[in-house]
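Hello,

I think I submitted the nicotinamide-adenine-dinucleotide job twice by accident. Can you confirm which output corresponds to this input? Input:
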Amino acid sequence: MKRGAQVALVAGGAGFIGSHICDRLIDAGAYVVCLDNFLTGRLENIAHLEGNHRFSLIEHDVVDPLPRWAMRFTHVFNFACAASPPHYQADPEHTLLTNVVGTRNLLQVAEQCGARFLLASTSEVYGDAEQHPQREDYRGAINCTGPRACYDEGKRAAEALTFDFVRAGRCEARVARIFNTYGPRISPDDGRVISNVICQALEGRDITIYGDGSQTRSFCFVDDTVEGLLRLMDSTGPAAPVNLGNPEEVSVQALAERILALTGSNSRIVGRPLPEDDPRRRRPDIGRARQLLDWQPTVTLDTGLTATIAWLESQVASGVLLAAE
Ligand code: NAD
Ligand code: UDP
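Support: Only one job matched these inputs. Its output is below.
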């Protein structure tokens, strides 16, 4: 779609998914303001956009009052929030405030500009799900006092706030429930399973499997997720949360074995304790995305892993610090 008349605010735009959104918007002719506090984002993700007259960067925390804008945004994307458990648990209070106060600040920008708002929510709103696969009408099973709550409950509150704005006619909004996404630009020290295992395999270090490795996830390649997000932002009809993920479900053990095969690594697989409240199974029902957006993932796990391995290899070659594990 041509986006020549669009002016987009992309909060969290220096991060993994947000930077790919910035690229797609710029490529289509939009003006993009990327706002990021660089908690987990990296300048390298957007360095190639520096100097483009349609791109600007503001270093700012969404929890703090937002600047007064000279331009009128047509679209506001909210990707601002660390997505990896070790990062979002490092300062849980800030994570919760990012999701609640930060989302409110961005919703108010959308309201003031008459812009459409998109919230990057998460499959984590389903918690350790009792329904499988997870449909959007499933209300979830979350431990609100556990170490993941700052993120899970923060995102649930962000969704609640978003739909309150919609009900009150204060802005138009879309909510994407993103399932585990991976691909180029994932940070080597991100701490999630795919980047950890690939970096460990490339360096010949032990592969750390938490628990017995039988827990499952469904991994979606970033290009597929980004395509779904843009289609969702542009979609018509009433606001409703939409799952975006790849229904191909894989155990963590099987994932690690796949990565070992693709890298040709001799690393050993070693066990580590399963983190508290780690969901046992996760797979999206993407019926709603298929119907509303005519969207489904197109990249297979092997193809996506191969691209991600190449990316992380290039990071190793350029001397970027590898995962701590
Ligand atoms: P990421 O950590 O790479 O990106 C998050 C970005 O937000 C970073 O650039 C970070 O610096 C910025 N940020 C964090 N807190 C901020 C704050 N208070 N103010 C301003 N900027 C802030 O993570 P990602 O994987 O790109 O995830 C992007 C969004 O998508 C997040 O909201 C995440 O919850 C959501 N999501 C991601 C996944 C996934 O698998 N990657 C799954 C579900 C949901
Ligand atoms: N995990 C693992 N080894 C690692 C990192 C994660 O076995 O080095 C496990 C983790 O316990 C979880 C799964 O892999 O069961 C996915 O973890 P990730 O942090 O990537 O995503 P999330 O738990 O947020 O879905």
